Amino acid sequence: MSEKPKLHYFNGRGRMESIRWLLAAAGVEFEEDFLETREQYEQLLKDGFLLFQQVPMVEMDGMRLVQTRAILSYIAAKYNLYGRNLKDRALIDMYVEGITDLMGMIRVHFKLPPEEKEKNLSLIIERATKRYFPVYEKILKDNGQHFLLGSQFTWADVQLVETILMAEEKEPAILSEFPLLQAFKARMCDVPTIKKFLQPGSQRKPPPDEKYLARANRVFNRK
Ligand SMILES: N[C@@H](CCC(=O)N[C@@H](CS)C(=O)NCC(=O)O)C(=O)O
Question: What pLDDT sits at residue 203?
């Protein structure tokens, strides 16, 4: 196994993108093995490397990790992005899960049939501005600090800024009613490791398109 974590997934965002973000934010270099063909996927299955026959899979520290959430929490714990105690962890889990629910809606939007896209986009905007962003705006207001957990930079901050940028790709003015989240985003994008990840040529992936979907369908034998 290589020294650096090795990520097995498509050459696209999907469920792996938050893992790329978290590693990048932690300043960890990683390698990627992109799934392009059915044969590559079958080889991973044959080798017994995919516990539930699914990707993302990350080779790291002598393990072959699967299940996105498990991979993220391992990375967060390893690189001190998971709080100082159990209560911090509970808060981080709540904040991450909330933002992941919103992210999940945005992540699958591109796959919807054209006639459902507009309605679904309205739902995303409604959920972002009425349910999720008000919560994070209030947390920042109440603690009057830089990060969701006050002075500690954590996994929750990384997941939130990733989702804000995804939401802005759908609706550029989506943060207009949230001044503290705007300031938060600016601060986060200025964290050196994140700033680097946001530069062109980094391992950050572009929004998914038809080609990405066709590749995934090919690999999983879906029509
Ligand atoms: N609960 C898993 C779900 C993983 C998952 O659904 N992966 C998809 C690709 S994004 C996959 O491998 N699908 C093939 C299959 O389920 O057979 C996770 O969060 O990692």
Answer: 98
* Same-domain pairing of 146 and 167: yes
One-letter amino acid at 25 equals A
The residue among 202, 204, 5, 210 whose CA lies nearest residue 113 is: 210
Looking at the structure, do residues 39 and 99 belong to the same domain, yes or no? Answer: no
Pocket test residue of 55, 57, 66 for ligand 1, highest count of atoms within 8 A of CB:
55
The confidence score (pLDDT) of residue 49 equals: 98
Q: Which segments in the chain show pLDDT lower than 70?
A: 1
Task: Give the pLDDT score at 144.
Answer: 84
**Cβ–ligand 1 contact at 8 (below 6 Å):** no
| 12 within some domain | yes
CATH number at residue 41: 3.40.30.10
Q: Measured between alpha carbons, how far is 190 from 217 in angstroms, rounded to an integer?
A: 37
Pocket test for ligand 1, best of 8, 10, 15, 110 (most atoms within 8 A of CB): 15
Q: Alpha carbon of 189 to those of 8, 28, 98, 128, 183: distances in Å?
A: 26, 17, 21, 20, 10
| 25: its two tokens | 């934010």
| Amino acid 116: pLDDT | 94
H or E element that contains 92: helix 86-109
Report the C-alpha gap between 99 and 20 in whole angstroms: 17
